[in-house]
Structures are given as C-alpha cells and as structure tokens.
Amino acid sequence: MKLSVENLAFGYGRKTVGDGVSFTLDAGEVLCLLGPNGAGKTTLFKTILGLVAPLGGSIMANGAAIHRWSRQKLARLFGYVPQAQLGFFPFTVRQVVLMGRTARIGLFRIPSSRDVEITEGLLQLLGIGHLADRSYVEVSGGERQLALVARALAQEPEVLVMDEPTASLDFGNQVRVLAEIKTLASRGLAVILSTHDPDQAFLCAQRVAILHGGRLAHMGPPQKVITPANLRAVYGVDVEIITVENRNGEKVPVCMPSFAKDHVG
Amino acid sequence: MNQIADRSVRSSIGRKAALGFGFAIMALGALILISFSVGRYPVSLNELWLLLWSKISGMPSGLPIAAETVVLKVRGPRLIASMIVGGSLAVSGGVYQGLFRNPLVSPDILGVSSGAALGAVLGIYFSLGVVGIQILAFAGGLSAVAAVYLIGVFLRQHDPILTLVLAGVVIGTLLGSVVGLIKYLADPYNQLPAITFWLLGSLTGITSADVWVILPAIVLGLTPLYLLRWRMNVMTLGDEEARALGVDTKQIRLIVISAATLITAAAVSVSGIIGWIGLLIPHFARLLVGPDFGRLLPASILLGAGYLLGVDTLARTISTIEVPLGVLTAFIGTPFFIWVLARSQTGWR
What we know:
The complex is a heterodimer. The model of chain A has no long low-confidence stretch (mean pLDDT 93). Chain A has a six-stranded mixed β-sheet, sandwiched between helices. In chain A, strands 2-1-4-5 form a four-stranded antiparallel β-sheet, covered by helices on one side. In chain A, α4 (113-125) packs across α5. By secondary structure, chain A is of the alpha/beta class. Chain A has helices at 41-48, 71-77, 93-98, 113-125, 141-154, 171-186, 198-204, 222-225, 228-235, 261-264, and strands at 2-12, 15-26, 30-34, 56-61, 64-65, 78-81, 159-163, 190-194, 207-212, 215-220, 238-245, 251-258. Chain B is mainly alpha-helical. Chain B has a single domain (93-343), classed as Orthogonal Bundle (ABC transporter involved in vitamin B12 uptake, BtuC), CATH 1.10.3470.10. Chain B has 14 helices and no strands. Chain A binds chain B through residues 13, 46, 49-51, 70-72, 74-76, 78, 80, 82, 86-92, 95, 99-100, 102-103, 105, 107-111, 120, 129, 132-133, 135, 137-138, 151, 155, and chain B through 2, 6, 9-10, 12-13, 98, 101-103, 157, 227-231, 233-234, 236-237, 240-241, 243-249, 286, 290-292, 294, 347-349.
C-alpha cells in the first residue's frame, strides 16, 4: 500500500485553504499532522477522503488515481475517525461500530453474523465491550471517540485517517489510543492523524508534517521537525525539547513550554 | 462469564423490542374489533364473528342484511383504508426524520401535502369526479417534491439536507397561497365546503376500490425502504460520515425520497390532509423498538395504523356529524408532542 498526494490544493468552492501539499504514506507508517487551529487539517483530511472535492493536484493509491472511485471502494481504502459529534438517534455503541462494516455489506443487506463478530472483537480491543448495549448518545465523549476508532477499524481499511483522535480522551485513553495506533501500524496499516500535542508525534509517528499558512511547512522525522524554532514559528510560544528515558530504556523527546517571563512573576 | 453477561444484555434489548411489537399488535387487534362494532349501527362481537365465519365458510349468517352491509361494505373498507393511510404517513415520517436528522420533520417536509392539496383543490374547482381529484392530488404531491428535489440539485454547493428542507418550506408556502387563491375564487356554496372538507382530512365514503388503487403504490414505495433499512441507519449519521462509510448518499437519498413521497402522495390522495401522524408516531415507535430501521419501519406501520384507526373511529362516533380527522389528530397530537418534548432531556432519545 502506498498513498501519494501530489501538489494537492484544497478548500471550499472558490476559497482555497491550502495548496502545494505533497506527501507519501507507506503501509506500516504513521504520519502525524500538526498545525495551529484553523490551519485546515480537517479540510485536508476530508479532501484526501474525497468528501470535499480537491481544487487541484492528485491523490493516488498504489499508483491509481482515486478521484473516480465509488464511495464503497474508498471506504474500503480509508477508515475515517472524524471528530466526535453527538448522534441524533439512540443507536447503541455496538450498532454504531457495526456501521463501519457498511462498505462490505450489500446494498439491500443487513450485517451478517461475521460482521457482528468482527464488531465484538473491536469493542473488546478498544476496551469498550461493556458499553456495547449503551446508547451512543449517553456515553462520555471519550467513549464515543473510542467507538469511532472501533468503527473506522471495522471498515478494515488500508489507510486510517484520524482527525484529532485523542482530543476528548482522558490521559489513560490517550495513551491507549496512541499505543493502539503503533500496534496497528506494525501490522501494516498506514496511519495519518492530526493532533495538537507534539509529544504524541514523538510517541507514535515516524514522520511529522506541520500544516501552516496553507502549506506543509515542514515534514520529516519527529526530531527534525519538532524543534524549538519551528514550534516558535508555528504556534508563537517558547518550547524546550528535552530527552527523557522511559521505563523500557527508550530515549523519548518531550516538549516543555516556558511561559513568557512577565506571566510568571 | 463476560460473554454470558453480554448475551443476556443483548437479549434484553431484543426482549424490549419484542414487547414493543407485542404491545403494538395487541393494541391494533383490539382497535380493529372495537372499530368494527361501534358506530351508528352497533354490531356485537358475536355478530361480527358470525359474519366473518359465514364469509369464510359460505354458510348463511342468519343476521339482517343491513349488518352485513355495514360490516363488509362500509366499515371494512374504511377500517382498512384508515390503517393503510395511518401506517403510510407514520412510515414516511420516520424515514424523513432519519434522512433529515431532525425529529420535527413530518412527511410534508418536502411539500408533498401542499402539492397534493393544490391538486385536489384544482380537481374540486374544475368539478372533476372523485377519481379525477385523487389523480390530481397524487400528481400534485409528486410534482411538488420533484420541484423541491430539482432545486436541491441546482443549488448543490450548499449542504444538501438544509437546501432540501428550505426549498420544501418555500415551495410549500407558494403552493399554499395558490390553494388560498383557488378557495377565494371557488363557489362558496358547492366547492368551498368540499375544499375545506378535503383539506381537513376525512375517510368518509371510502370504498374498497379506493383501497385497491392506492395499495400497489404504497407497496411499491415500502419495498425499497425496507430493503435499504441498513443504509438508512447509516444515513442518520449525516451526509459526510455516511459517505466516509461507503454510502452513495445521493443515490440513497433519491430512492428514499421517491419512495416516501410515493407512499405519502398515495395515502393523502384518498384521505386529504391529515397532519401529526408522521411527526408523532415515529417517536413512539422509536421508544418501543429503538432507532434501527429494520424494526422502526414495521413498528411505525403498526402504530400508525392503530392510531389512525382509533382516531377515525372517534371521528365517526363522538358526534352526530363527522369530525374532520385533521382536527382530531391535532387535538390528540399536541399534548402528546409536548409530552415527548418534556421527556427528552438533551437532544432526541
């Protein structure tokens, strides 16, 4: 599996949000997209997914242009974790995850027992098996987010596109989702995710890209891209990068912001 | 251990739905019996049984011919028509509420009722017969929704759902004012009462021929809705998420809108405008069996059928003159709707 995005311009109608975006993503690779609020990360993702028409450039999967693919074919290529929103009707968590199977269910058919089995496995995998029969609108925001991850995995995709998958999760669930992303990638899934936390890129990504001013300002390995100078330029804050050793003896860089002097005293 | 717990929880959901269906079927059965027996010519349950048995066995029932006429020729078709119309309006209301992700949506959201009203009113104005009026009502309902859908296609740069709803409101208002114009021009002694009567909804004088005319259209509409029940579930996530999950939303929306419009137009063409059923009944169906369309569709049909049957029985028995159905459904519907509003905490559950 190789996804390549070339010179992509994206936006809504006549309003261009970003252009000149090029990158490739291989099976087993995790690409983390950083960028300030309003940089267009969600729009870029929706354009890659074919939910928003591209304004220019091309997206190829294994060398084939995907812009004419059917929704069904696209849903088998891309699993999508959108930012969690409240549902309108009280479907159970199990039913919501089961909806991820839709691209593999015939137009006039309902989920098979195999679809239900796969769903059960994913509910267990993400630790939300006990919520399976609860209403999706009643569980917490973090639990909804985990259900959406399970739903995207139920698509059995080759590329997982996750829009701020840790945004509404508590610390424990953030770590669990990041660990799950690493595991999935090691099994051959290509993952592209956006986040507001550069530390997460150090934890799970092979490559980082920063979307700033409508362009991919920087792209490369986390240590090369997440630097005090780059973070200063993009977010306008002062950050030290320190390296700590975790329990497994791995050296992991961590961002440590420093407040401007006059805010401290 | 965990698995056993899991299974028992799942079966408890199934049991809740089974109870819901049991309730709906029993209520409908009881209403059918009551509705057959009450009226200006009361028929006891025993006489009803004798009549039906004689019909099945071919033996004479020994009852006066008047009883047979009332039950088989007058009440029978009317009962069946009320159930078909009620079930149709409820099912298309439930489908539209899912498609438009809005619990305040009713089958007339895209202008099918106002289109049908204009067709029927024109038919009355030009003194056409009953069949002519029904055909015009049916065609009017379909054309109004087609116009709304085309507006939605032309304004495709906007959110498709919002565009359809707004176009529906605008077209509905326009057609409503044309109906007003025709009422103003109509002969106040012959035509105006007939127009008013039609606009308030009624099943008076319905025949078994009417039932046979609308039934194929309704079955034709129900079939794709039931076949697409899983895709409909996914559609309630909204256009973008449904597409991301592999649903061709444009195609499904066109099929579902056509099917629901066909059902509603057919029902309204014989009954006139009956509000509230399509708005209210799906809420009760959802309470009883949950939001999954595989269960919601049959539950809506059963509850809608029972509801309109009950209301129509009231309409022909509470007074010496027939009370218009639209008026009764509104009187019953308003307090129920406020109750639904009160018991929903945040959002629509």
